[in-house]
């Protein structure tokens, strides 16, 4: 069984988390051959201060914030 842990800042809606979970399960299943039933996914949420990137504490999550767009573009 695959165990996937996803840490993120508080602020996403339940619907956003459902969509994220569905996408992650699909990609992980395709990459590993595990069935969706054999993948355990956990979301852990925390305040922005608990996340440090490039030596800087992140602000609280705000949907559509510029810092998230920058982070997403660097991941592509």
Give the arrangement of secondary structure elements:
Layout: E1 2-9, H1 14-32, E2 39-46, E3 52-53, E4 56-57, H2 66-75
Parallel strand pairs: 1-2
Antiparallel strand pairs: 3-4
What's the β-strand tally?
4
**What is the C-alpha radius of gyration, as a whole number of Å?**
14 Å
Largest sheet: 2 strands, parallel
Order of helices and strands: EHEEEH
How far the N terminus sits from the C terminus, by CA atoms, comes to 28 Å
Count of separate DSSP helical elements: 2
Biggest sheet, spatial arrangement of strands:
1-2
Instruction: Estimate the mean pLDDT confidence.
Output: 87
Q: Shape, please?
A: elongated
Q: Give unreliable regions as ranges.
A: none
| Helix percent band | 25-40%
Multimeric organization: single chain
Question: What percentage of amino acids are in beta strands?
Answer: 25-35%
Q: Based on helices, strands and strand pairing, what is the structural class?
A: alpha+beta
Description:
With 76 residues, the protein is of the alpha+beta class. It contains two helices and four strands, in the order βαβββα. The strands form two sheets. The protein has a two-stranded parallel ribbon with strand order 1-2. Strands 3-4 form a two-stranded antiparallel sheet.
């Amino acid at each position: 069984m695959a165990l996937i842990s996803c840490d993120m800042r508080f602020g996403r809606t339940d619907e956003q988390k459902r969509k994220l979970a569905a996408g992650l399960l699909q990609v992980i299943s395709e990459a590993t051959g595990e069935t969706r039933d054999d993948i355990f996914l956990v979301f852990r949420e925390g305040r922005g201060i608990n996340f440090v990137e490039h030596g800087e504490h992140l602000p609280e999550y705000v949907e559509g914030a510029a810092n998230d767009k920058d982070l997403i573009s660097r991941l592509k």
